Amino acid sequence: MPNITMTINGRDMSAEVENRTLLSSALRETLNLTGTHVGCDTSQCGACVVHVNGKPVKSCTMFAVEAAGATVDTIEGQAHSDGSLTVLQQAFQDHHGLQCGFCTPGMIMSAAALLKENPTPSEAEIRDYLEGNICRCTGYQGIVNAILAASGQTAAIAAE
Amino acid sequence: MHNFDFVRPSTLAEATAAMQAEGAQALGGGQTLMPVMKQRLAAPDTLVSLAGIAEMIGVCEKDGALVIGGATTHAQVASDAASMYPALAALAGMIGDPAVRSRGTVGGSLANNDPAACYPAGALGSGATITTNTREISSDNFSTGMFDTALEEGEIITSVAFPIPEKASYQKFEQPASRFALVGVYVAKFADGVRVAVTGASEGGVFRWSAAEAALSGNFSAEAIEGLSPEASGMITDLHGSGAYRAHLIGILTKRAVAAAH
After folding, report:
1. For A40-92, how does the pLDDT look when each residue is reduced to its tens digit (9 = 90+)?
2. Pure H helices in A6-101
3. Which of B40, B74, B91, B219 would be B101's cystine partner, CB 3.0–4.6 Å?
4. Does domain B5-49 have CATH number 3.30.43.10?
């Protein structure tokens, strides 16, 4: 089986995988990074979003061997090294951006990618960017509010 | 899914050689192929990844056309081609969702020729030329039906040249669950005439709506096609909409595209 090395959350990690092993499976089952969730396994729900070379991808729809040599960032690498949450993570907590939490790793990774591209997105831009992330508990208002807050746009939340 | 051999060539010549193997299949971004393989509707013996071939990635403007490398992602086209050909960049930016656009490629989309995909409309509407490792194919001769193209076994789309029109617009009526086009219409106005390409609607895949092209070539305004819509026969009927509904949408979306063209 191929042995691949990826730089995951800043650390070089190696894994033995089959060619058909999905990146999501390699992260969860081989490397025990179970923060990345698999909801649908059909590229619809976005729970498995991670960043590969800085870009958001659905890790259930990429082969692990395609990520050989790549930089991969997952939810486990988001919080600061002392364990304190990022502004975005804290905003999800403060604004009730999650209920059961299953979709949250993908939501955070997609939202982080959005804020990197567009530091002050409008509500419409947030909703458009999260098109491929599905939440079945909260509806989306808390999630949108969290991202508005994380981008310093508290006035936009108050206006609703 | 069934296992397979995996190769990641770094040159087109290596990829062409790898595609000669029995049961070899090119892998672009995998955003269609992987779901298909998970369902065991496809089980290639060898996947030839095109993602490591630098000469097949990137966009540039050449001889009045936007030339996109076959392995260029939708996200890159949406950002890098926006100043060269805004309507086509906008089309790329509307495919799927951001994570899908990080992976999916123009070559993969055209080679797959999903009857509801966006790029086939952009290519046919622009009168694009599809270059492969062996030849050039006009977009007028490329689609040969649903999920079927003029590509031969082992042929790889290396780049696509989209002639840049005076103005153009793509209007997509999304099927909200899949985000594919229930109907999508690409209108492009060139100095020598107008092209109108329709995706999502026909059982035969992407097609040119010649009646609208004729009307718009004389008068590029929404009024020129008032009340015009194509025959409903041959249009896709499924749980999302009837053939008559899709035919109606084509007329509406074409008018919107003419109004929005820039």
Report:
1. 999 999 999 999 999 999 999 999 999 999 999 999 999 999 999 999 999 99
2. 23-25, 87-94
3. B74
4. yes
Domain ranges of chain B: 5-49, 56-163, 167-260
Say whether domain B56-163 belongs to CATH 3.30.465.10: yes
Non-local (6+) Cβ contacts of B135 within 8 A are: none
Q: What values do phi and psi take at A140, rounded to 5? A: -110, -5
Q: Which residue of B has its CA nearest to A114?
A: B98
Contacts of residue B205, Cβ cutoff 8 Å, sequence gap at least 6:
B113, B115, B120, B143, B144, B145, B146, B147, B148, B199
Q: Identify residues of A whose CB sits under 8 angstroms from chain B CBs.
A: 2, 18-20, 41-43, 46, 49, 52, 55-58, 61-63, 65-66, 110, 113-114, 129, 131-133
Whether A42 sits inside 8 A of B35 (CB atoms) is yes
Question: Quick check: helix, strand or coil at residue B140?
Answer: helix
Cross-chain residue pair B97–A132, CB shorter than 8 Å:
yes
The beta-carbon neighbor of A61 closest among B2, B35, B98 is B35
- Say which CATH architecture domain B167-260 belongs to: 2-Layer Sandwich (3.30)
Q: Which of A1, A21, A38, A55 best tests the B interface by mutation, with the highest count of B CBs <10 A?
A: A55
Phi-psi region of B145 (alpha: psi -120 to 50; beta: other; left: phi over 0): left
Domains in chain A, please, with CATH? 3-77 (3.10.20.30), 87-156 (1.10.150.120)
Provide the ipTM: 0.94
Regarding pTM above 0.90, the answer is yes
Asked if residue B97 lies in contact with residue A46, where contact means CB atoms within 8 angstroms, the answer is yes
Asked whether the beta carbons of residue B102 and residue A57 sit closer than 8 angstroms, the reply is yes
Structure tokens at B41: 């509707």
Q: pLDDT, tens digit, for every residue of B88-144?
A: 999 999 999 999 999 999 999 999 999 999 999 999 999 999 999 999 999 999 999
Residue B103: its chain A contacts at CB < 8 A?
57-58, 61-62
Q: Do B34 and A61 touch (CB under 8 A)?
A: yes
| Cβ–Cβ gap B34/A2 under 8 Å | no
CB pairs under 8 A between A and B: 69
pLDDT value, residue A160 = 59
